[in-house]
Amino acid sequence: MVSENRTSLYTARAEALAEQEKKAASKSRLVSWLRVGVFLAGAALAYLFFSNEGLTAGAITVVGFYALFILVLRWHSRLDFAYTQLLLLRRINQQEVERLEGKLQLFDGGTAFIDDHHPYTSDLDIFGRNSLFQLLNRSVTSVGKQKLATWLQVAATPEEVLLRQEAVAELAAPQQLDWLQDLLALPQHYKHDQEQADNFIAWFSDKAFFKTHSLIKVLTFVLPVLTLAAIAAWFYGFSGWIPVAFLLVQFLLAYRFRVERDEYYEKSIGIYEAMRSYTKQLQHIEQHQFSSAKLKRLQGQLLQEGGKASESIHRLANIIDFFSWRLSTLMAFFLNTVLMWDFVWMYRLERWKDKYLARLEGTLEVLAEFEALAGVAAFQHAHPHFAVPQLSERPFEVKAVALGHPLIFSVKPVVNDFEIQGAGKTMVITGSNMSGKTTFLRTVGINMVMALMGAPVFAEKMTVAPAQVYTAMRTADNLAENTSSFYAELKRLRMLLELTETGQAVFYLLDEILKGTNSRDRHLGAMSLIRQLHKRNASGLISTHDLELGAMEQELPESVYNYSFNSDIVGDEIRFDYKLTKGICRSFNASKLMQLMGIEIAKEA
């Protein structure tokens, strides 16, 4: 019912924005035609005056209509931006509906962050197709995506989790929805290439062209003045060879340092769109009032004594914009042969670097945090029935009421209550095929990851103690590494044991361990692993078909617990309830499943 309400809300917003979008498009087209009209009127009047030898009137007309044309052009640019913003906001609301419907394949899966050697991300569908990243991420900028990926890969400290929860709660409030969606829409006006931005920062940090060529610095500002003065003097009868000499000097300097000029331009132009995007986002953040501690601290970092962060980024974007005038075929010769244009903006870039570059990385870090928080907040707004988990100081406490899997989209999702607490505890989960054992392990794991990054969880209530989540589920052979699936699983288990040797709290989720060997070795190995983990700072869940593992509940009472998932066979139909039940599984369906697949099962004598 709650998801239906949110679907209706986002659909209504999208429809309202579509109406505003039509009006904005109509107004933008009207002003576009006005721009054409101003140009044609100015050209006609100027032609009329100049044809009748009204040179002064013609000149005034050209200047006046050019100024008017620029004003109308800027007006149209603002209207066009507003129209695009409405279009993007409509898409954002439509995308929220698509996420609620489980259409995650439409979104970036964060495949660049997939790491098969990570303690849990591959097994818990954190990245990739139909992943948690697709469900949470609303970032457009690469810095925002990277920040969210880091949060999903590394659990935050308890203090940081609480700060994020408070910040997310503020941003997810209904009255903040317009501001939040505006923040998510603004970067979508521009192109983003984080690799170029990173390369620019690394490259520019060591650049000091004018410190090593101090004479060029002087000539950059003296030569254009002398050249223009010499040209003016030539009109008054002075020798024409003087401006020619100055022009020749400028040409030779431009030719001598052509590689440096091109390098400065090519490195900087690659970040122009990103800088414009960052300016808009930062202005949006700087102008807002926040109440939560984390958001106020982040905003404070943008409003330092050196000026607003948006202003420094805007200056960089303007410098790059003026630098790009060199590409104009009509102006290139004049700019670089008379005004030393490239050198001027190279100098401005270096001055910007000396004053602001050290602050740039910190600014991008703040922006990345805001984007990551905004994505989690949008998710929380879309799922108000999800619980904000409580953090526990009791070791390995994981307690949930009505725990479900956030990536299973169903009208009536199956949920389970679950509780475990204390070090050295293992919950052995047995069950028939397809009964839900593996899904339950993933449900516990993915909700723990969400809880420990500061996001809401799919539960009515949930309490979680900080711990390193570790999984061993999707082990497969690797031909490139000449590794069998069994050996791959052993490597995962060895990594688990090495991790527990550090003394760090580890919560493990192991699915059908040692399935690549015979039943006797599997049983002995599983029992030995449970005994070994029992002595370490670790607890967790193990799913298995090995019913004999249930005997460990008697061997290690109050440390090993038996739970199961069961199924019923009614005629030719296998029915599952996907409910976690105490005790060892007593129902089996493998033979029936094989029969349904056409395998004739011989009856025992």
Automatic annotation (TrEMBL):
One of its GO terms (biological process) is mismatch repair. Pfam families: MutS_V. InterPro entries: DNA_mismatch_repair_MutS_C (IPR000432), DNA_mismatch_repair_MutS_sf (IPR036187), MutS (IPR045076), P-loop_NTPase (IPR027417). Residues 424-603 form the DNA mismatch repair proteins mutS family domain. One of its GO terms (cellular component) is cytosol. Keywords: ATP-binding, DNA-binding, Membrane, Nucleotide-binding, Transmembrane, Transmembrane helix. The chain crosses the membrane at residues 30-49, 55-73, 215-235, 241-257, 323-347. GO terms for molecular function: ATP binding; ATP-dependent DNA damage sensor activity; mismatched DNA binding. SUPFAM superfamilies: DNA repair protein MutS, domain III (SSF48334), P-loop containing nucleoside triphosphate hydrolases (SSF52540). PANTHER family: DNA MISMATCH REPAIR PROTEIN (PTHR11361:SF99), DNA MISMATCH REPAIR PROTEIN MUTS FAMILY MEMBER (PTHR11361). This is MutS domain V. It comes from Pontibacter ummariensis.
